[in-house]
Amino acid sequence: MADEYVDILADDLTIIKTCLKSEAHKNGWLHPTVHIWFYTDKGEILIQKRANDKKSFPDLWDVSVAGHIETGEETIISAIREIKEEIGLSVTPDQLIKIGVFMEKFEHKEEFTDNEIHHIYLCRLIANIRSLKIQKEELSEIRLISIDSFERATLKLNDSIKLVPHYPDYYSFILEEIKRELDV
User: Fold this and answer.
1) Domains of the chain as residue ranges with CATH
2) Cα separation of 99 and 106, whole Å?
């Protein structure tokens, strides 16, 4: 979990400066991330369980792959890098579908605020989940769940899956876009 350099963004998303990720979190400055949601043709979604020593939302289930965009890095390159780092899967740019951006702000504790704009991608998972190699520093487990189970978890109707409390509009958007890709 390196403390990489990230770009700090103004409200209009122009870059205003560069600093360490830890400084961005300490000051609550807006910075970019990537979120990649994997889904299968069987209507399943890949979720990851965050490592128990993560500063934010330890031991909760979250987006398939996520990470910070390093200074000067293109979002698609960041997405490809994060996928390889977190689950050991190589993908090409044409496999990723950018579906939009979403801003979220979480104040975890004093001197740690996630103020991020997520660049969100979808990717069809064609690899067997058992072939994926997880990055133990970031996550402890991955699993596939049905779209219905995921939707129930987002509504807190499934107690067995405790999700990161992303904004409800975020989860609704993700579900809608995955269903659109699957033509459900």
Assistant:
1) 5-182 (3.90.79.10)
2) 22
